[in-house]
Amino acid sequence: MANSWYEDLNAYIRLGEPKLKKKAAAWKTAIGLQAVDGLSVSDYLLKTAKENIEGKITDNEANAQISNYYEDCCDRYGIEAGTKEADIVAGRIASLLAEKTFSFTPAFWMSVHRYLFKDVFMHAGKIRTYNIYKNEWVLNGKSVFYASYDSIPMTLDYDFNTEKRFSYRNLSESEIVKHIAKFTCDIWQIHPFCEGNTRSTAVFIIKYLNSLGYSIGNEAFAKDSWYFRNALVRANYNDLQNGVHATTVYLEKFFENLLYNGNNELKNRYLHIDWHEEK
């Protein structure tokens, strides 16, 4: 993929035309989110995104073009390098973000996952049936403790019902940020799917925030999606023997930037458990 994808799409936003800005912002988020799994999109995806932003093709046509491209693709290196998954999922994220549909239920989250990863993962939209462990760079190869597979439905119901009963009335901006960060880290820790949890969580949270009345440009997800994932990891990891405590502080900085145009510096090295601020 051309290294200039971010600036290429930013050019549409600088034009100031509302439809172009909205489409470009969705594509920036969709492409940026692939970084949470170390994936990059192809130059073909960027070309398709530009055609969609400019109104030359519809969302459905864009996704069809991407699928057809890989059906006809003979470049095995391009496919094996991960661009196929990244391209297909990015196109679907951009399309889903453009739709004004939402339901605050675990079922909707499952439908998001199913839509994003259909024909990419065999288990798209299905609750995992085994326990998982993921090596994390930010934890020196250790893993967060994820929910046990047999507790997933019950835990999902608990977190969603608790959030439904919560009132944001009369909360300050900082209180809202803290609560959104906590809710996000809690449902992410469940990790209900075998793969694609962070990307589906991000899309679900964006649509949830939109349903709460936030008109967000999704810039933070476009530029700092890997930070977002690492912040979720740090929010769910304890190693008290070595002085490491689970904290949502890093995630709060992300959401402050996202919701209230905060100016927090989001550097991944700050999240590493061995990082210490220079004095």
Describe this structure in words.
This protein is mainly alpha-helical and 279 residues long. It is built from 12 helices and no strands.
Helix count?
A: 12
**Biggest sheet overview:** none
Strand content: under 5%
Query: What radius of gyration results from the CA coordinates?
Result: 19 Å
> What is the typical, i.e. mean, pLDDT?
92
Question: Secondary-structure map with pairings?
Answer:
Elements: H1 5-15, H2 18-32, H3 43-53, H4 59-72, H5 76-98, H6 106-117, H7 152-165, H8 173-190, H9 197-211, H10 219-223, H11 225-234, H12 249-260
Helix pairs in contact: 1-2, 2-3, 2-5, 3-4, 4-5, 5-6, 6-9, 7-8, 8-12, 11-12
Question: Which features does this protein show?
Answer:
279 residues, globular, 12 helices, mainly alpha
Structure, briefly:
The chain has 279 residues and is mainly alpha-helical.
